[in-house]
Design brief:
Blueprint lengths: L23 E8 L2 E8 L10 H9 L8 E7 L5 H9 L2 E7 L3 H13 L6 E4 L10 E6 L7 H11 L3 E12 L4 H10 L3 E8 L2 E7 L8
Parallel strand pairs: 3-4, 3-6, 4-5, 6-7
Antiparallel strand pairs: 1-2, 7-9, 8-9
Bound molecules: S-adenosylmethionine.
The site of S-adenosylmethionine (SAM) has 21 residues, from helix 2.
Amino acid sequence: MNPENGGVGGDHYFSANPVTPARSVEVEFEAAGRAFALTSAAGVFSAARLDPGTAVLLRKAVLPAATTSGALLDLGCGYGPIACVLAAVAPSATVWAVDVNERALRLVHANAERIRAGDRIRAVGPDAVPPDLRFAEIWSNPPIRIGKDELHGLLGRWLPRLEPTGTAWLVVARHLGGDSLAAWLRERGWVVQRHASQRGFRVLQVTAPAPEIPS
Ligand SMILES: C[S@@+](CC[C@H](N)C(=O)[O-])C[C@H]1O[C@@H](n2cnc3c(N)ncnc32)[C@H](O)[C@@H]1O
């Protein structure tokens, strides 16, 4: 059984249209001092429980302030645990929840309604995000298993869409290349702090370099 795809044989969690029947699963967890009960389903990432890496990210990274407005991005949202926590703690923000898995996007729609944030969580495929939109924060438990080149392409596509003062929070297992990903990001000019490390996961804080002050 592969716990990352809910114990499903044929599908990857990043399949666009999982063939496995969409058996519903209730996932309960606590984050930011609140209890969440979300609907998940076979054929999406970590369908049966909050992923341990996502749990570390939500526990260790600095969640947005209640006053945060503008757009936040949950990149590779799955059934939406990160997007739902962001929407709950930042009620003035709009959360874009992006995934290639259409079943995951349907679950995010349902979960957004469950937490009464249906008007503030936009669950869409990558190409449906308005091209000129910039994000105050990007949050991601990125899809490492799509392969290094694809992962680099994904981050290279979305990180430049941070606002100049924005922050990205990423969680990556050390044994799946968390440290080499940090090094790769630094080589491309991003400022990367290893903000926290817990249970084998690295929480990376990524920001753009400060602009040079002309002399
Ligand atoms: C590690 S899972 C994290 C899911 C969810 N955020 C969570 O914490 O449970 C990564 C997600 O990225 C999605 N994904 C894969 N390729 C993607 C792409 N090119 N663009 C957006 N999402 C993608 C997968 O379908 C998967 O749902």
